[in-house]
Amino acid sequence: MRRLQHLTPARGATKVSRRRGRGRGSCLGGTSGKGHKGQRARASIHPWFEGGQMPIQRRMSHKGFNNARFAKKYQEVNVGSLERFSADTVVTPEMLKTAGLISSRFRKVKILGDGELAKALTVVAHAFTRRAAETIAAAGGTAEELN
């Protein structure tokens, strides 16, 4: 009958570690496989040690701040390109995507004020420039912001 105390690992699953510094007969006595003297024969060397030259963390400059990681990124659409929609239409990011004016309907959309608009449209977007909102209002439409 097999019992838990009789179980052993499979053959080749375990490996006996070499005992260093236990006499000449062990083949790893004396200097314990570290050679003679020198830095590498003594205590450990940090993995980032570069042999006395200026370390990379001190060579690289780390000054200043860049807002690129934290800036809000918008897909921009000019008011003039909204002229392709028919009058009294509610223009949403989904419609802008199907018209090919933006690349993704999941990223935020900002309407810029370049161009002219002659139709009354209800434009729904995440942000508007002041001039874009004025142009849409002058044409008789409304600009609604999404959150």
Give an overview of the whole structure.
This protein has 147 residues and is of the alpha/beta class. The protein has two domains: 19-63, no CATH class; 75-145, Ribosomal Protein L15, Chain: K, domain 2, CATH 3.100.10.10. It has three helices and six strands; from the N terminus they run αββαβββαβ. The protein has helices at residues 56-59, 93-98, 130-138, and strands at residues 75-78, 90-91, 109-112, 122-125, 127-128, 142-145. A three-stranded parallel sheet has the order 1-3-5. A three-stranded parallel sheet has the order 2-4-6. The longest helix has 9 residues, at 130-138. The radius of gyration is 35 Å and the shape is elongated.
Q: What would the keywords be for this entry?
A:
147 residues, alpha/beta, Ribosomal Protein L15, Chain: K, domain 2, three-stranded parallel β-sheet, 6 strands
Summarize the structure.
By secondary structure, the protein is of the alpha/beta class. The protein has helices at residues 56-59, 93-98, 130-138; strands at residues 75-78, 90-91, 109-112, 122-125, 127-128, 142-145.
